[in-house]
């Protein structure tokens, strides 16, 4: 099923969450044949903008929805949700704030009633890095909330001189040069429990 110039609304229909060039739904034919139920296999949105914001308290909002309010999907109507050839705008209001606009966004959301996985590939502003890819995987705790998260990010051509623009990194020394960097993060119950990095630097010098 292909829809052009599609608008995606909130669950109650009161507000528009996304506008997309096209939206495609692929149906699971086996569910229709075997159980006479309609179930989507893949929902793809092309050419949309995904808005992400972090407020002064550190709370993250996706399309205006607090991440803390996102609950496990249960028996989801759609097995996989994908943003293709889109744009991600990240507005960070902490420590003075900064806005990053990422192009060529490929975002894939999949999972089950016990686990959620997010895979991303983005082209950031050239002054920050050449490419960012990564994934995040969250599992549900006994209270029925996403609690334990494992995350990985790969920064291709990260530019050191632009890092002080990132909230929380203003105290970094003024460095020149670039690096290919891998970052692993583990978060449990909202607390960071592990950080691991690996980097291959080029042309590093004090500016």
Summarize the structure.
The protein is mainly β and 207 residues long. It is 3% helix and 62% strand.
Overall geometry comes to globular
Give the number of helices. 1
The helix-and-strand class reads: mainly beta
SSE order in H/E notation? EEHEEEEEEEEEEE
Please describe the biggest sheet, giving its number of strands, its sense, and whether it closes into a barrel: 13 strands, mixed
Radius of gyration, whole Å: 19 Å
| Terminal Cα span | 54 Å
The average pLDDT score comes to 79
- Overall number of strands: 13
Instruction: List low-confidence stretches.
Output: 74-78
How much of the sequence lies in strands comes to over 45%
Helix coverage percent of residues?
Answer: under 10%
Name the descriptors:
single chain; 13-stranded mixed sheet; 207 residues
Topology:
Elements: E1 2-9, E2 16-27, H1 29-35, E3 40-46, E4 49-54, E5 60-62, E6 65-66, E7 80-92, E8 98-111, E9 115-123, E10 131-140, E11 146-159, E12 175-188, E13 191-206
What does it look like?
- This protein has 207 residues and is mainly beta.
- Helix content is 3%, strand content 62%.
- Strands 1, 2, 3, 4, 5, 6, 7, 8, 9, 10, 11, 12 and 13 form a 13-stranded mixed beta sheet that branches.
- Strand 1 and strand 2 (16-27) form a beta hairpin.
- It is globular, with a radius of gyration of 19 Å.
- 9% of the residues are buried.
- The model is unreliable at 74-78 (pLDDT under 50).
């Amino acid at each position: 099923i292909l829809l052009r110039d599609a608008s995606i609304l909130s669950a109650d229909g009161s507000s528009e969450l996304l506008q997309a060039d096209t939206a495609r739904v692929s149906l699971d034919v086996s569910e229709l044949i075997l159980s006479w139920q309609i179930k989507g296999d893949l929902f793809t949105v092309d050419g949309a903008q995904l808005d992400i914001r972090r407020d002064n308290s550190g709370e993250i909002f996706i399309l205006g929805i607090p991440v803390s309010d996102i609950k496990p999907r249960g028996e989801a109507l759609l097995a996989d949700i994908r943003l293709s050839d889109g744009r991600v705008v990240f507005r960070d209001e902490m420590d003075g704030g900064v806005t990053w606009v990422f192009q060529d966004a490929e975002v894939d959301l999949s999972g089950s009633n016990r686990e959620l996985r997010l895979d991303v590939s983005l082209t950031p502003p050239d002054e920050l890095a050449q490419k960012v890819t990564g994934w995040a995987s969250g599992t549900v705790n006994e209270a029925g909330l996403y609690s334990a998260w494992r995350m990985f990010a790969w920064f291709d051509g990260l530019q050191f001189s632009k890092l002080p623009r990132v909230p929380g990194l203003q105290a970094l020394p003024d460095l020149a040069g670039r690096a290919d960097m891998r970052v692993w993060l583990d978060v449990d119950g909202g607390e960071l429990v592990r950080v691991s990095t690996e980097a291959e630097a080029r042309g590093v010098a004090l500016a």
